[in-house]
Write a structure and sequence with these properties.
- By secondary structure, this protein is an alpha/beta fold.
- It has one domain.
- The strands form two sheets. A four-stranded parallel beta sheet has the order 2-1-3-6, sandwiched between helices. A two-stranded antiparallel sheet has the order 4-5.
- Helix 4 packs across helix 6.
- The relative contact order is 0.19.
- Bound molecules: iron/sulfur cluster.
- Iron/sulfur cluster binds next to helix 2.
Length: about 180
């Protein structure tokens, strides 16, 4: 039997940089430096859906966790996660080892250890309108909205998985 019985669950853009907010992609397609060791060691990859692309499209602005932390977006996250969570449960019940979930630190949605904070919204007519928000924005400790919802859905099914993250500037080392 060839199958490894080992799987990692990864944020969508780690396998498809084209989903990222323009012009944030630091790699053309797959973030190989983060995933090569899993691929070479026979792991299967489950690609999570991208909550931001499916909610606001590819021409969305970069936003903060405060802006995404809204009941409708949380509901959207749960809606698009249901099939993946079913698949994780089915694989787990069948004896497969789901090694971890790998998110993207700094993302308002997929951050695990770090998320994005600061922008609050409003009409933008000049750079001065948003300059104070930009100065206050940045990475803060905490998970993104999508990862919070995924954790909660897994917990409801008594599935406990380690959550790790990629720092895209140093993708070789996953962060616990
Ligand atoms: S929402 Fe998540 S999957 Fe989508 S681009 Fe951002 S980090 Fe990647």
């Amino acid at each position: 039997m060839q199958r490894s019985g080992k799987v990692v669950v990864v944020s969508h853009c780690l396998l498809n940089a084209n989903a990222k907010v323009k012009p944030l992609a630091l790699y053309p397609g797959v973030l190989c430096a983060a995933l090569n060791s899993f691929i070479q060691n026979g792991f299967g990859l489950i690609q999570l859906p991208c909550p931001e692309t499916s909610y606001l499209g590819i021409n969305r602005w970069g936003m903060s966790k405060e802006q995404y932390d809204h009941p409708n977006f949380r509901q959207h996250c749960r809606n698009i996660l249901i099939h993946t969570v079913n698949q994780i449960e089915a694989l787990s019940v069948s004896g497969c080892e789901i090694t971890c979930v790998i998110g993207v630190d700094g993302s308002p949605s997929c951050g695990v250890n770090l998320t994005s904070s600061g922008l609050t919204g409003g009409v933008i007519k000049t750079f001065e309108d948003i300059e104070p928000q930009i100065k206050k924005s940045g990475s803060v400790k905490g998970s993104g909205v999508f990862m919070e919802e995924l954790k909660a859905m897994l917990q409801k099914r008594n599935i406990s998985l380690p959550f790790k993250a990629v720092d895209e500037h140093h993708p070789e080392n996953l962060i616990d």
